[in-house]
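User: Predict the structure for this protein chain, please.
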Amino acid sequence: MTALVVAASLLVGVSLGVLGGGGSILTVPILVYLAGQGTKEAIATSLFVVGVTSLAALVPHARARRIRWRTGLLFGAFSMAGAYGGGRLAEYVPGTVLLIAFALMMLATAVAMLRGPRRARERARPADLPLKHIAVEGLVVGAVTGLVGSGGGFLVVPALALLGGLPMGVAVGTSLLVIAMKSFAGLAGHLAGVAIDWPLAVTVTAAAVVGSLAGGRLAGRIPQDALRTAFGWFVVVMGVFVLVQQLDAAVWTHPVTWAGAGAVLAAAVAARWRAARSARAHAPTTTPGSPCG
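Assistant: Here is the predicted structure, written as structure tokens:
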């Protein structure tokens, strides 16, 4: 079982290194279903793992000057406040409720990933987010992260890229700074009511750091759209699995449940269809008789 946990932790690091997010999406299920931890212990441990791994993944981005330090530090500061509050609030929320909220966050994140970045909107926005936008978005994203241990990079990256106008590469690098800051703040909030298995936490973290270094090397070799799509559908499967584990049979046989599941699936398929249509619309075209290089 330990070998399986380490292997899965490598995937956590690869996700952070390549996509700038996805660490907590994978870490919590790994700790709950593979390592046998309780929900609250897994969420607190995941914040430590993701925080340290994000710092390691941040180094190559900093060397390549792919970090917007002012925006990242301000966003991170407000996220830390929200994450600490969310971490303290989690002490009073039942573990089952937290896991259900986590699974719903996974599905929402998957839809956002499958939609892909909107490059046209990136260029139309200013280079730095206004302070009031940074404050509101930082507090909200931080609170979600501290409460359910999720919603890190895949909420921060779109906020920085779509609303702040940062190029995707810079948004990914800057998000790692934000993730590290708010992960440690959320951990501080959880430590008031949760004890962490530090040997397990260090083992998972070490594997994730190695994975993040490998992910950094892979980032420039694998098409980002293909990775994002594959990972998005993987997150959908994981989210449904967590929901199945937490909800009883009466819930799953209720029509509202199936209506909601159908709506999520339809939204994911529609998002992929719109992304594919947009990609075709922006693809270079050739005229008869012209060279096709």
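The CA atoms of residues 32 and 38 lie 6 Å apart.
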